[in-house]
Design goal:
alpha/beta, Rossmann fold
């Protein structure tokens, strides 16, 4: 099975969040995909956590290393289609990229973001629960 995984999924696993065991269980044997922006998104999220003093710089680097050990295939996204989604639903480009990636695949989306889940349902993108 192919799954489009959102940034928050990688971070939850790398940071040993409470959702990690469930994520690992439901993705066992799956082939993970994400838009090419994933590494930048992970970097942005980790730097924001350091800035807010949720993580130290050392912890952020450790989390980055952990995310890099997760097998994922990075894929290009039709930027024009993602931009249309962003415009239609008042989204940031990164969120639109993940939705467009799942829509184009078509593969289920795995995200912990409630708004993304709602939009995926509206767009008839299957979700991995």
């Amino acid at each position: 099975m192919q799954v489009i995984a959102d940034t928050n999924v990688f971070l939850a696993v790398a940071l040993n969040e409470p959702e990690k065991p469930h994520i690992v269980q439901i993705t066992a044997g799956a082939e993970l995909f994400a838009p090419e922006i994933l590494p930048d998104e992970i970097g942005n999220a980790l730097s924001a956590m350091v800035k807010r003093q949720r993580l130290s710089a050392v912890q952020a680097r450790s989390a980055l290393t952990a995310t890099r050990s997760i097998r994922v295939r990075l894929v290009g996204v039709d930027i024009a289609e993602a931009l249309q989604l962003a415009s239609d639903f008042d989204l940031y480009a990164d969120d639109a990229d993940f939705l467009q990636c799942a829509r184009a695949a078509p593969s289920p989306l795995l995200t912990m973001d409630a708004r993304m889940r709602n939009l995926a349902t509206e767009l008839k993108i299957p979700l991995l629960d």
